[in-house]
Amino acid sequence: MRQIRTRLSTLICMTALLVLASGCTLKATVKQTTDSTSNVTGTTSGRTWFTEDGLLHPEHKLTAFMALNQTNVEQDLARGQGEYVTSLSTLLGLSDDRQAAFHEKAQGAFETLITSDHETRLQQLRMLAR
Asked: CA 36, CA 120: separation in Å to the nearest integer?
C-alpha cells in the first residue's frame, strides 16, 4: 500500500510539474502571439485605414473594394455592366447619369486594366471616371 501511495505521489508531482511547465510555455506562446499582433498593427498602416469607430476611411474604400472583389469586378468590367462595376463607379463618386458612360469606357479599357498592377489599375479607373 505504501508503494502505491509513493507512486501516486510521484505521479501527482510529475503531472503538476508538467502542467506548470506547459503553462509557462503556453503563456509565453500567447504573449508572443499577442506581441506580434500588436507589432504588426502598430507598425503597419492598418490603423490609419480605420476610424476610431472601426469604419474604413473614405479614401481607402476604393482600394479595399478592389482588393476584396477583384475577380467579380473584372468579370463585370469585361461585360460592361453588373453590380460590382456599378459599386465601383459609385465609390469613384460618379452620379447615376454618368455610370453608363463609365461602364462603357471601363469595358473598352478592360485589357489594360487587368494587366496593370493594383495601384496603376486604381489610377486608371480614377482617370476613366473623369
From this structure: 32
Number of C-beta neighbours around residue 76 at 10 A: 21
Q: Per-residue pLDDT tens for 9-58?
A: 555 655 554 444 545 454 454 455 445 444 444 444 556 888 888 888 88
The length of the chain, given as a count of residues: 130
Global pTM reads: 0.59
CA–CA distance, 19 with 40 (Å, rounded to integer)? 31
Alpha-carbon distance 10 to 4, whole Å? 10
94: helix, strand or coil: coil
Task: Report how far residue 49's alpha carbon sits from residue 28's, in angstroms, rounded to the nearest whole number.
Answer: 30
